[in-house]
Structures are given as structure tokens and as C-alpha cells.
User: Fold Oxidoreductase from Saccharibacillus kuerlensis.
Amino acid sequence: MKKTGAAIVGCGTIFAQHARVLSEIEETELRLVVDSELFKAEREAEIYGCEAAADYRVILERPDIEVVHLCTPHHLHAPMAEELLAAGKHVLTEKPIAHTPKAAESLRAAAAKSSAQLGVVFQNRYNESSRRIRELIDSGRLGRLLCMKGIVTWSRLPEYYTANPWRGSWATEGGGMLINQTIHTLDLLQWFANSDVKRIAGCITTDSLGDYIEVEDTAHACIDFSNGIRALFYGTNAYLTNSPVELELIFEQGTLLQRRDCVYLLENGEETEICRPSQIAEGVKSYWGVSHGLLIRDFYHHVRENRPFWLDAEEGSRALQIVYGIYAASQSAAAITRWDPKA
Assistant:
């Protein structure tokens, strides 16, 4: 059986999530690990039995490497992906698709020209709870979805930023809590709404980390979608623990609540648990969820079968557009109905 050759670029925090899954997929083989700090790549290469390199461009001359995982800082996602796609390499990039909407637009154009596929990692769409919620929305069983709210209260200490100076900077991270942590929740809200954004009002602040970062650690927003659904959002990195994400979706004939990855239906005054995942995310990295493996495997299925992956450049840009809509609304101190997605 011919195996699909893979490489991972970036040996930071999220690297192990990708490497572990690749080691478990029989049809794939991790052949190269890349990091600008070569000792990191060599360390991981020894663990996973592959080669190491300091420059990702060596991949361009490797016909045995067909898929590249980008686990690099945000500002490197788009330029690396564009070069790899031009060389015919399939690319699976961690979120965000880019660190600015302008860079995302450039990458979307590059992906449209390439014969290879671009996938964006929003793994929480694969959570059992997310899938169950989306199924109920699509079924119409509870009537029309009217409004939603998402609440994220997490913690980031100064050491999180000082250990990786690219974080906390507009130039390299592209923002703060919104673009790095809670972009997953914003992505779920827009996926559930299944509609373009019509209006955004909101504000960003730096409540606890102002001595360490130039970006926000806290934000709130009111998001109106074109189909009439309204979403309220609050997120912060100023809490002292990583609490489970809370979601509420109100329909004409009932309410869905997500707590600790479980979904409850409130109907006729009765609350019933309708989804308890077989695996619930726990521990320090619980905010990642448990679905990286499902997404990565699905991406490889699409590549092998030459079918377009559904979380592509266009779909992967939607949450970033909302993030920058909140930034624009905060800067203007007023609700906005238009903002430049290419800025």
C-alpha cells in the first residue's frame, strides 16, 4: 500500500496533536519535521522516526511529501501555504487561516489557482456536541433558530506570551484572545447561523495583561446575521482558570444548552440531556477539544479521494472576518454594517 507522505512545519504547542494522529493513520507516513530552531525539529524527528529540517522550502523539492501541516505562528500561515500550494502540495493549516483578512484573501486566491487542497483546522466543528446541535438546526424540529450566545472564560498568564514573543503582537499574532482562542467559538456561532453577517457591534479591552501584550485579552460583541439570527458573545483570557465553553441556542420551540461538551434540550419546562460525548475534553488543554484526529483523518480521506475538503479557504475565512469586524466596531465605537474584509 502506497502511503501518503506528510510533513509538519512548526514544533510548538500544537505540534503533538498533529504528529500523534499521523502516527495512527495507517495510510500516512510522517517523513519530515521542520522548525526554524533545528534542535526542536531534530528532537521531534527522533521521537517519530523521520527527518528534520530548519527550512520548510526543502519540501518544495520533495515529491515524496504530498501533504503539509502548518503549525507555525499566525503571520506565517498564509505566505507558507501560498508557496506550498503553488508547488502542488496539499496544505492543512492551523487556525487562523491568516493573521489579517488581506493575507487571507491572498491565500484564497492562491488556493483557487492550485491543483492541491487547502484545509483549515476548526476541529470543534467535529465535536459530537457541535454535530448534534447542527443536526437539530438543520432538521427544523425545534422551529426556527432565533438567537444564540457564546461565553468563553479562559486564562492566559504572562508566561504564555513571554515564552513566545510572536504572541500578543498585532504584527505577528494579528490580534489577541479573539483571533487565537475564541475564534473557535465565533466559528461555531457563524456555522450554526449558516448566514452572512449583517451587522456587528462590540468592544475589545485589555483587562489584565496590558503590561505584556499590545492586543486584547477581553471582548464582547452583538452579531446580527442576514437571516435574522442574533448572537451575543463574550470572551476573556483574564479569568484564573480555563472554564468550559458555554453555548445557548434559543429556537421557536425549545432551547439547546451546551455545558462541558454535553448538550441539553430545554423543552416544555423539562431539561433533557441529548448528547454526552464518549470523550470529554479535560485538563490544561481542554479548550482544544478532542476532535483534531477526526478533522485530520477527514482531510486525508478527501485528499486520497480527490474530493474538495469542506473546511476550505472560503469557509476558513468566515470566523476571521467576524474577528476583524469586532476589531473595526471597537475602533469606531459604533455598530458597523460594512468593513473592509481585505484590510
